[in-house]
Predict the structure.
Amino acid sequence: MAGLATALGSGAMTNSIAEISGAKTILAIGTNTTQAHPVLALQVKKAARNGAGLIVANPKKIDLCRHATIHLQHRPGTDVALLMGMIKVIVDEGLADLDYIATRCENFEQFLASLAEFNLDAVAAITGVDQELIAAAARLYGSEQPAATLYCMGITQHSHGTDNVWAIANLGLITGNVGIPHGGVNPLRGQNNVQGSCDMGGLPDVYPGYQKVDNPDAQQKFEAAWGVKLSETPGLTHSEIFDKIHEGTIKSLYLVGENPYLSEANASHAIEAMEKIDFLVVQDIFLTETAQLADVVLPAATFAEKDGTFTNTERRIQRVRAAIAPRGEAKEDWRIVTEIARRMGAPGFDYNTPAEIMAEIAALTPSYGGITYERLEEGGLQWPCPTIDHPGTPILHTERFSTASGKARLMPLSFRESAELPDNEFPLLLTTDRSLFHYHTGSMTRRVEGLEQLVSEEFVKINPADAAHLALVDGEMVQVSSRRGTTTAKTKLTAVCPPGLVSMTFHFAESPTNMLTNAALDPIAKIPETKVCAVRVEKMTA
Amino acid sequence: MNPVTITIDGLAIPAQEGMTILQAAQANGLYIPNLCNHPDLDPAGLCRVCVVKIDDWKIAISCKQPVKEGMVVSTEDPEVQRVRKNTVELLVANHPMTCLTCERDGNCELQRVARYVGLEPTDLNRYRRSVRSLPMDRSNPFFEIDHAKCILCGICVRTCDEIQNINAIDFVKRGVASLIGTMGNKPIAESRCESCGECVVRCPTAALSPRHRVQPMREVKSICSYCGVGCGIRLGVRGDQIVGVQGDRENPVNGGSLCVKGRFGYHFINHPERLQKPLVRKDGELVEAEWDEALDLIAEKFSQHKGEQFAALASARITNEDNYLIQKFTRAVMGTNTIDHCARL
Amino acid sequence: MNAINTPADLGPMRDYCQAALGRQKVRFLVCAGTGCIAGGSMAVYQELQRLLSERDINVDVELLYEGKESDAGVGTSGCHGFCQMGPLVRVEPTGTFYTRVKAADVPDIITATLDENSEVERLLFKNPDGSRSVTEHDVPFYNRQQRIVLDKCGTINPEDIRDYFAVDGYQALAEILQHLSPMEVIDIVTASGLRGRGGAGFPAGRKWLGCHKAGGSPKYVVCNGDEGDPGAFMDRSVLEGNPLAVIEGMTIAAYSVGARYGYIYVRAEYPLAVVRLQKAIEQAKQYRLLGENIMGVDFDFDLYIFQGAGAFVCGESTALTLSIEGKRGMPRVAPRPRTTEVGLWDKPTLLNNVKTYAFIPDIIRRGADWFKSIGTESSSGTAVFALTGHIANSGLIEVPMGITLREIIYDIGGGIPHGGTFKAVQTGGPSGGCLPASLLDTPIDYDSLDEAGSIMGSGGMVIMDENTCMVDVARYFLQFTEEESCGQCVPCRLGTKQLLEILKDICKGKGRKADLDLLYELSHSVHGGSVCGLGQTAANPVLTTLRYFKDEYEAHIFEKRCPAKVCKDLISFRIDEEKCAGCTLCARACPVSAITGEKKQVHVIDQSICIQCGVCKEKCPTKFSAVECVSPKLVMEVA
């Protein structure tokens, strides 16, 4: 997200979901779309069915490969090499859109220079993908347009995730596919309102609408609106927070609707922090693993019990409506916050309805300026929607980019390996993914009997050759260890994983996968490298 | 697309080139009975119930026959009536007569068609009745398959193919033994079926029906809370319970499509383990407390830990309004920008 | 010579192969059609080889092309068609035609041929008047036929392409590659009046033209060899007996429509046809008659065999192409584009029957006028029928279109055996109709049969005598179509089922008064409502029997009587007290011990035990003829 914002000026999907089926070429990289975004995947499959070229770049032979024209099965963590290699083919073969680059991009010369290291020989060696296949994918992307790129956590959850995102942006820009219908660079947001929580300033460095906290204009604006003095110092990120708890700086943590016990990379670090902290408040709908560590647990309402809005991955703000009353004494999150604030004597929390909150959001957030509940009754609106009569923006960057110069920045890149690679001690590479049947840490889906009936436990997906080497059979309970911890799960022997690669989800508390993962952070986006770490799979000791 | 005019039973109606007769009729509010047609799918032409006569000479199926300028269509020609009625009679003679206890009673396409063609008991009595007795497939936790009620319209097969591209089911066997089945005719739960339920919502009879279905008293439009796609849904409510979820066909994001979680994963809302009261840790144990007690404690503690001693983690699952207030609280009340959430996970 | 590198090479090749054949003073050709093999012809073949090799003469099994003279050759041939009389052996060059040959007859055949220059009298075909026919041409079964596609089936070795060269094989292809444009070939096919031999009789020339004009690449030529009608084996015989004629015909078609690839769809139940096709394709490739640059000219055509899995419906052209694509074989639903435009893999596809292609080389070589001169105005050429049922000479026949049913049944078929009476003839396979004696003078052509309520079909012809129950016949065919319905459309899937259930009830004496109207009504709806030709014609056996034999239905329904005494639920067997001599034969044969009676005493059948199997009637010596079959059923006497 941060990466895309640097390159294009905005860190969201440039195009809309409904446009995907009209693309001539789709590159799906680092996204197991049919599992994690099944309804959006329908658009991808529809495009493929209508004859679009579908390039799936994924270390695993995921379900989407069934519909693919080309499957680039690259080694995890080598996305930069793969993408820059494709870009080099496109540039070398004269498929780059030079007019577009000239008018809409900057930094082309420096960018060209950085391509030198990505000749096909080198790229094939790094990625493990056949040269011809890379070249064929490049030609397809470079010649059959509009071409859309879809990506997800398989791109961002790396210690060089920002480089990955830049590489994707470079590919879209060099071929002139950004800012046109059915094209674009499209990060698929994982959870239902990730986009919205970012938009709302649920981030340490920005106010709502990505207004920087260290920008004095923004600071003044919010100080005026809220009637208080605000800090111009950006706050701490997720993993830094746990570090500061360990250090004893942070004494109170207010944790809403999250379950770091299972979701945090190198989870034991976070768990220990939460056990140690002076005062932990967890606000959730269930007594999650995390909530069990809390000093106070507040019962929250589910989405079906409250009014509000979600903003989806294509920046569409849509109305959520209360269908039933909150269970028991549970309350809506916004109401709980107002009650805490009021008890602390803070002014400015006298809201009676979410619509009033949205009015304040719209007043302070330019991209949400035209949003009102009345308008949302007619259907969702895609931001930027700055004024009350603005129809919303299905495609970003059609005229200019949201950078200071109005041009997109081509980012010179070089390849960096992942922070931790397999070695003798931990010979397998673990990557994480999602099951279609479960959601995140399973606090909701694991309480749905039918879903639990379909899939109720973790599996270590492992190539049959690796399994044979380790004398493991299908369905055998094994121990998986990394430098950071150990967990257990049953094996699933499958050719979906190439030899050397194992894969697990993180939905199951019984098999906490994030005990294994590496919290090595991307220096810019501060995202941990949950997609690559070194592990060892062993038979259970009796 | 060029506009054309066709005549259906003497009524001139406007249509577009490229439309089928059935589409043109439906666009003009005319009902031509049909069973295997579905607006989301390519026409299959299998049920043969939508037969019409064209230009007074040829019997054709209206779901596949394209309109042509000046085309004269009869839906009540005697030959059409006979073929259509016989076809429906054949289906009914092959169908269980358990309408009153059937999940689809009153909302069944076979009933609708039977009523339209005017089936009479005397007509039906001429037939040799035979209802297939195949065991129901109850292997899927969310829906069940009753082959006896299946009219083999193939809508489920086409849905799984054309829309979902999963192809978990297809026609298997031949002739009267034909049925919709999986690879190797194994139970649906052992197939590649992803339980999205798209076939279930399109089934014209109760051959595919949701398990433990409770009719809602009202529906509320909302947005699915499961992933970033943001599918439009209609929550079915009965009493104070959510009893079902339907895709919102008007929503531009999903056009009514849902995945297994979105359609069937709502039971957590009514789950008995839902937190219903605040909990406060006392003597190492979390015990139920009143809101006042919990909130007072929080206000007290937070007041002591303002600034860099405080951190908030908001959520990618709660609403924009919730998130806005949490960051506002963190910044304006607690005096720190240390607010983050799980966007990166 | 082992390749045809230019079209001009073919003349010398033919001469060379004919010369090779001529080097054999005598040639024994043993029929290796499926029927004769089943009858033991391979034992005859081996015995011929064994005994000839014991003689002090030059014998060869394969044709000798190396210049050496030989005294005798032994070879196999395709089906002669006269399967009733198999195993068949033909001696060349005299053309002597032996029937019902067993291995034990081989010494006599060798002696007569090699030593005595005579024939083995007892193995020659015996005419009804007692005289013997020496060659095929003298046999009435053959001499009323006009064999074109079957002509070479019994005279050449189908597993050796040189035999085919020797009988002008590939001359037609050489001719067109040298002298004719694709359109000129199509014009010849059009002018010949050839209609598709698959059953529907669509003009072949028009189909070829459609595919020729269709845009899209690559194009395909497909041969429909999915012969599924019960009792029909025309296509099998052609594929087994002269596979290269089909291949040459397809190659000519490919040239004409611009196709690059071809498929021959054969039933996996025809293993011999598959083997022979494989050998033929292999040899054609070796000789540069398939593959790239055929005969050295700029024309490429590759041919593959696809084995069907036994679904009758796959004989329907659109189901067949889907089946080749690996999909479930279900007919595509009209309105749909023509297969010539959107066929296999959605590409333009020419799909014809085996026999249609097999006619092509002859039509090209001998001209459109020659073909047009055979048959009738609207249906030119010959028709091939598999003659079965209650007929003296069953087998495969080829007759000019326009010949009457009577001529086929009585002149070629030799009439009804055992002095029986003709009752009905069923043409066109399970979707055909049953025609009564009053229509025996109907000429055989597409239009006349259609008018009579039947169809030409692909060429099944079942003759039925007076001991046939027409309701039972309708039931039999409906059982077939019901089982073979693909199941996709309601009228065919459930309509055939309903018709069958009603027919079964009628046969059981459970027919209702309303059934006649319902049968009629449903038959028309199945015809009008079904997706494909199979469904549309599925009710033909019902409609024609209702039309021509309604009295039998009425007897079943109203009198509970089966006039032909076939339907077991409507008949009883009883022993005539006057005639029974108490020989006990019947009692001993009865499988359910329903017959009691002391030796020399009158026997009695216990009707409550009897299962109407009829064994008692068969066993009762003709001199007594004491057992009789009656219908309706005897009312059981209360003791």
